[in-house]
Every structure is written in C-alpha cells, then in structure tokens.
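Lab meeting, item 3. Inverse folding demo.
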C-alpha cells in the first residue's frame, strides 16, 4: 500500500490562497476580509450532536478541560498563550458551546456570551486580521463558524443591537477568510473542517448563498481523495474516521433542514465510510486503537451510524486503508497491514506496522496503548512509537521515522499483504521493510485463525543479518489478569468474565513488565505487557506463538 497523494488545487482556489498569504505578509489582508455585514442566519438550526452538561457546568465555573489539559485561569480564557496547541485549538473552535447549551440555565448563557464577546474584543483589537495562526487556521475557523451558527441564540439572546452587529461583522470576516483558505490550509482532517464550516455558512447565511456551489465543489474534491476507495479516511485513524463521519452526517442533516439537495459526493462519502467505521469496532462497541485513537463512546458511535442511514456491512479487510480483520466465532483480530499515510495526513500517524489487537466477544485481550489527549511533548511522541504497539521492534528503534515536526520522515515502511480464507479459517501474511535501511531486516508476521474461534496462531520472522536484538510486545487490556507459567514458556490470561487464554511461545524468551493504557475514558491506566525477546541469528529468526482458549475441566 502506498500513501495517498494530493492533486493540485484548482487554479482559481490556489490563486485566492496565494493572494491572501501575500496580502497577509504585506499587512493588507484586513482589506480583503472587509465587506458588507451579513444578516442573521436564515433560521436557527440546533447542534446535531449533544453536549456534556458536566463539562458545561465546569466551563461556567471557570474550569476549562480541553485536549486532556485542565486550566482554571485567574484571568480570561483568551489570555492563556502558554497553553498547549491542542488546548488552544479546542478553545478557539468554540465547540464547547454545545456543552454550555446542554448544561442549561442563565449562568450557562451568560458564560457563553461573555466568553464570545471577550474573544471578539481581543480579535478586533489585534494588530492585523488573522494574526493568530491557531485562531485563524482554516480548520479552527470552520469549527468556530459552525459553533456560532448552531448556537446563535445562545450567544446573542438579550444582546444589544450594536454587539450583535459586531458579532455578524466578525462572522462575515471569518467566512471571507474561508473563501481564501478553505481547501488549501490545514493537515489531515483539519482541511475538511474548514470546508465544512464554509459550506454551512453558505447554507445558513443569505449573503453567502451565491457561493454555495463553489463551497460544495471544494467539499466534494476534498472527499474524493481524503476518503480512500474502500471508505477508509486517508489518516488511517479509527478516531478520525468516526469524527469525520460525524461531521459529514451533521452536514447532510443540515442540507435536509434547509431543504436543499444533498450533494452526491457527500452521500457517497458517508455510504463508503460507514462500513469501515463498523470494521474498526471491537465487540464492546468501541474503536480499535490505531493511529491516535481511543475507544470512544459506543453509544455516540451507534448514533452516528444510525443517523448516517448507511447499511453497508463491515468488510473483512480494507485494502486501500491497509487493515485486515480476522473473525471466527467470538474471536476477532484487527491488524495494521498498511504503510503510513503521506502528507498532509501523517501528522498523528503511529509507527506501528503489523500491529494487532485481539478481542473475544465484548472483552479486549491484546491491545495497543492508544493515544492520550495531549498532542505535544515527550508523552505524545512515546505513544506513537513502535514500542507502544503489539508488534515487533528492533533495537528500540521505530519502524517508521517520526520527524521533529511530528510527521513521518523519509524512512517509512512499505508493506505487502496476502490473505486466504477456507472452510471458516483465515490466514494472513504481512511484511514490512521499515527496518531494511537501518539494519537490513524485513519483518514478516503470519496469522492463522482457526474456524472455531478459540485458536489463534502467529509467527513473527526477521530476515536479514545476525546480531540484532528484537522485542515482540503484546500489550494487555487493563482488565486482563496475566501470570507466567512453565518456566516462562507460556502465559495465562484471564478476563473479567472468567474466560482463560493461554499464550504459548517458542523461539524467544518471555517476560512480563508494566505498560500503560491510553485508550479509555481516563487519561492513563496501568496495565501489563508480555515481552518476547531475542537476537537474530545467521538465518534471521522465527518466533512462533499461539493464543488458545482454556477449556474448563
């Protein structure tokens, strides 16, 4: 699998974008954003997704939890320039308005208006428009425009005419900004968020209605290459798969609310993405932990799939996204068999070729560490490492290079996968060359799932020169209890339901050590991991292992 590449922007959009950036460099961009004040929205359309009342009450009390960080400032929310990038993006995106709306009461309304007007005053007092790169990135502006339009009554009820007009003036400036930047600015799903905000503004504000066709054109173009032919998002992230689909379903419902024809490209994207979202779910209803993902809320995932009205079944594999799923009985295995995504979709990709997750019924057994909500710092980089995944690593080195800018570097693994199915059994062979340049090694992982769903066999092989240390990791879900048996030649895993599984190994030394789980609702949970370690010999190495269900005697 090769990473997706981006086609050039349409000439007209590229000219607008380059002209806007030049005007910004010359201090003239404010002129480009000036214009007539838009009128109020055609109609008030409620936010399609519910907020969290507890988070809303916390915000009203001055406690802001964004991107995994809680800040209780003594001054204004907008004075926290030292906060992390993820925290500031979440604050500037205003999606927390839905939490205030959900908490209800006068205090929530007063807080929403106060914070919005404080933002407005600081923006108008800026030295030049769009001077804050975070506040004025296309994705953040797209989020903010959508939030303001969905919660227009919340932020304007009882305001003076002068203040409401100031908000409308600002809204007009932000939407004009999107006419220049949407579709050109941002990485990963952030590009799409700018376009979605632009489309929503054109649907809801009379002044921008004539631009609806152009905005839809940008949307359909973005979806045509960010959604792969098999329906997987180009980031290869289950979390982003869900979030993008949620945004698209909300946009589809907005077209229906406004009694407008739903664009074919939008409906096609939803229909293609829904089966892949189902593919990424474990038996507990949550998401697999690949590429910056957490379990998520299974009820929210159900709601998005239900409202998508896309009935396609989960596929057995995603050949373009680079994932395989082996299912037999109640046992399921998800495997990352793909290459890392290319720019601009690689900002949060993990170095985890051939990583697996294993679940039985509604219980997770073998997992990856997942992703904390923190987007910066050593901890954020550690969770992207090969060692944070249930796969093989060599010499404590990542299988894909993660550059200082956070993107995948020049050394990136390419993968090959072959799948066969017969008589209810599934056999998958995957390989990658991420360790070829530094060590001359190729990693091959073979998986066999027997028909009855109680026997998973695996083999990890390294082909190449001798003398290189390797570690195969099986990170365990925090609810799994584990103990080593038979002079550390096997391990017994027990789940909360009482189900027992025995892991047998040959060709490597087995040990047990601590790990962390970042996939749940809490930031971190302590757990354990099984390590299989060794050194490559003259003919490389082969490690065979089997995970089999224990039968009650």
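The presenter then showed the designed sequence:
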């Amino acid at each position: 699998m090769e990473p997706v590449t981006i086609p050039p922007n349409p000439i007209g959009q590229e000219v607008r974008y380059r002209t806007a950036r030049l005007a910004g460099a010359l201090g003239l961009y404010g002129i480009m954003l000036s214009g007539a004040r838009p009128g109020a929205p055609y109609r008030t359309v409620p936010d399609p997704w519910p907020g969290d009342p507890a988070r809303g009450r916390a915000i009203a009390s001055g406690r802001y939890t964004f991107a995994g960080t809680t800040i209780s400032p003594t001054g204004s929310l907008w004075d926290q320039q030292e906060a992390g990038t993820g925290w500031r993006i979440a604050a500037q995106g205003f999606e927390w308005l839905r939490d205030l709306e959900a908490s209800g009461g006068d205090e929530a309304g007063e807080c929403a208006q106060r914070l919005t007007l404080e933002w407005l005053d600081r923006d108008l007092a800026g030295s030049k428009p769009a001077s804050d790169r975070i506040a004025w990135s296309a994705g953040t502006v797209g989020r903010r425009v959508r939030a303001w339009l969905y919660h227009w009554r919340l932020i304007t009820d009882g305001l003076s005419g002068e203040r409401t007009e100031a908000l409308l003036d600002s809204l007009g400036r932000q939407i004009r900004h999107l006419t220049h930047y949407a579709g050109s600015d941002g990485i990963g799903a952030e590009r799409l968020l700018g376009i979605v905000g632009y489309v929503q503004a054109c649907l809801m504000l009379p002044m921008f209605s004539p631009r609806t066709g152009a905005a839809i054109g940008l949307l359909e173009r973005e979806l045509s290459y960010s959604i792969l032919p098999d329906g997987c998002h180009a980031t290869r992230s289950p979390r982003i798969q869900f979030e993008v689909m949620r945004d698209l379903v909300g946009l589809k419902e907005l077209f229906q609310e406004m009694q407008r024809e739903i664009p074919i490209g939008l409906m096609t994207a939803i229909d293609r993405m829904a089966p892949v979202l189902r593919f990424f779910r474990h038996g507990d209803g949550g998401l697999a932990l690949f590429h910056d993902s957490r379990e998520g809320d299974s009820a929210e995932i159900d709601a998005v799939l239900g409202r998508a009205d896309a009935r396609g079944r989960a596929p057995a594999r995603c050949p373009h996204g680079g994932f395989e799923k082996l299912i037999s009985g109640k046992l399921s295995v998800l495997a990352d068999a793909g290459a890392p995504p290319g720019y601009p979709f690689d900002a949060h990709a993990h170095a985890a070729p051939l990583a697996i997750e294993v679940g039985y019924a509604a219980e997770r057994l073998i997992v990856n560490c997942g992703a904390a909500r923190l987007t910066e710092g050593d901890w954020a980089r550690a969770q992207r490492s090969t060692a944070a995944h249930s796969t093989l690593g060599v010499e404590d080195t990542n299988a894909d290079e993660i550059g200082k800018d956070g993107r995948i570097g020049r050394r990136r693994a390419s993968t090959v996968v072959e799948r066969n199915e017969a008589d209810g059994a599934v056999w998958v062979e995957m390989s990658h060359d991420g360790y070829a340049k530094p060590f001359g090694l190729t990693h091959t992982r073979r998986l066999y799932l027997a028909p009855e769903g109680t026997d998973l066999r695996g083999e990890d092989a390294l082909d190449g020169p001798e003398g290189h240390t390797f570690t195969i990791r099986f990170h365990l879900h925090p609810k799994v209890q584990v103990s080593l048996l038979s002079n550390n030649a096997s391990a017994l895993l027990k789940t909360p339901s009482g189900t027992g599984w025995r892991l047998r190994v040959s060709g490597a030394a087995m040990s047990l050590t601590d790990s962390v789980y970042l996939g749940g609702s809490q930031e971190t949970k302590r757990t354990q991991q099984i390590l299989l370690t060794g050194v490559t010999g003259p003919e490389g190495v082969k490690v065979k292992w089997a995970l089999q269900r224990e039968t009650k005697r």
